[in-house]
Each structure stands twice: as C-alpha cells, then as structure tokens.
Design goal:
By secondary structure, the protein is α+β, with helices and mostly antiparallel strands. It is about 35% helix and about 25% strand. A hairpin with a 5-residue loop joins strand 2 and strand 3.
Length: about 160
C-alpha cells in the first residue's frame, strides 16, 4: 500500500536525490544545480515557493515524490496548481504510485478550490503522455512553453 504525505525539512536530501534521478531519466543529468540548502529554503523557508509530497511504501521506503506550486488564472479568477516534478523510482513504476500521487494532488487542488491542475511533459516521453491521458489530462498542443534564463534573463531585465 502506498502512503502519501507532505514532505518535511528532513526529506530534503531524498527530494534532491529524486530530482537528480529525474534529471538523469530526462537526459539532463548535469542540469541540476539545486542544493539541499536551496531546496530547504524554497520548500520550508519563511516564504515557501513550492510544496512537495512523498510517496512511501507501507514500510516507509520512499517510492517517489511530487513537487508543485500555486499559479493563477486571470480568466477564471482563481488559483491553480502547477506540477513541477513527478517522479517514481524505477522499481515502483507500474504499481500505481504515479496514479496515487496524481490523485492526491488533484484532491489537494479540489480541496483548496483551485480551478486548474496542470504540468508539462517532454514530447518524447510517450509513456508519460499515455499515462497522463489515461488519467484524464488533455494536451494543450496549441500552447508552447517560453523560457528566459541566465544571460538572456539578465539582458531582458536591463542588467
């Protein structure tokens, strides 16, 4: 049986390990620059930027996690939930852990009165796309993600 709970500061090393495993799976193993202190501040500091939940076996073995944050829709006039990361360990895949995490997050969104629950998925990750469609997700194919980082961000800021 999978148990899902909100992460605590003591979970930060495990969360970072999961983030690194996810980056490796997504073919970007060297892209993670986050550190434990950074994640601890982001999740548990005076003004948390995100929240996380941990999926565990009945014996307490970590099986995966989800990290999410509140966004906002001007069209609905309501907040929403953005899922930044969902990760299930390879040994736990196919056992319903991902489904349990998504259902748990959906329940949080409904309980909090959020209008939307959304996330991005890599276009090559067909197994994830199929999984999300089976869970009722609809692809927003007419939208593309835009991102500004590093020097381009500083230049945009006029610095």
């Amino acid at each position: 049986m999978t148990r899902i709970r909100f992460a605590t500061a003591g979970d930060v090393p495990q969360i970072l390990a999961f983030v690194r495993e996810l980056a490796e799976y997504e073919r970007e193993p060297d892209a993670v620059v986050a550190t434990e202190p950074m994640l601890e501040a982001a999740l548990f500091g005076p003004r948390p930027a995100a929240e996380a939940v941990i999926a565990e076996s009945g014996e307490g073995t970590p099986l995966g996690f989800a990290l999410f944050f509140q966004n906002f829709s001007t069209w609905t006039g309501l907040p929403g939930m953005y899922l930044e990361d969902l990760y299930v360990t390879p040994t736990a895949r196919g056992a319903g852990v991902g489904k349990a995490l998504l259902r748990h997050l959906a329940d949080i969104a409904v309980t909090r009165g959020y209008a939307r629950f959304e996330w991005s998925v890599l276009d090559w990750n067909q197994s994830a796309i199929d999984f999300y469609r089976a869970m009722g997700a609809v692809g927003m194919d007419e939208w593309t993600v835009q991102r500004v980082t590093g020097d381009a961000l500083a230049k945009l800021a006029g610095r």
